[in-house]
Design goal:
Strand content: 25-35%
Shape: globular
Protein name: Pyrimidine utilization protein C
Strand order of the largest sheet: 1-2-3-6-4-5
InterPro entries: RutC, RutC-like_sf, YjgF/YER057c/UK114
Family: Belongs to the RutC family.
Pfam family, one: Ribonuc_L-PSP
Keywords: Hydrolase
Length: 129
């Protein structure tokens, strides 16, 4: 099955040549998502919880544009700039995955935007229920 870009209505610019999501054979791959406005400026500077919420809402919009829901998420890759924000990120994250939790990993690293505190990339299976 060919790959189909997934671009939610109202999406802003991207930082590089990529789509917010891509779907193939019922699997949605959501690109690494930062808390960026439509002009690629970081929002909620200094607030890891608010950035996490913003990121997860963006991810949710990609999955919904592909016909899925957050309960279809099977894997998350989480990147944070400081372990001091780990608890705040997890508190928000848990509200988006209240039932069975998807697999995930979390690493500390530098991110492409200086004020970004968290980035999440997601995989969801929406085509086969």
């Amino acid at each position: 099955m060919p790959m189909k870009p997934v671009i939610p209505v109202g999406s802003g610019k991207t930082l590089a040549p990529y789509s917010p999501g891509a779907m193939a054979d019922g699997i949605v791959y959501v690109s690494g998502t930062l808390a960026l406005d439509k002009e690629t400026n970081v929002v909620h500077v200094g607030d890891a919880a608010k950035q996490t919420e913003f990121v997860l809402e963006q991810i949710k919009s990609v999955i919904e544009a592909a016909g899925g829901t957050m309960s279809d998420v099977t894997f998350n890759q989480i990147f944070l700039t400081d372990w001091a924000n780990y608890a705040a990120i997890n508190t928000v994250y848990a509200t988006y995955f209240p039932g069975d939790k998807p697999a995930r990993y979390c690493i500390q690293c530098g991110l492409v935007k200086k004020d970004a505190l968290v980035e999440i990339a997601t995989t969801a299976h929406v085509g086969k229920r």
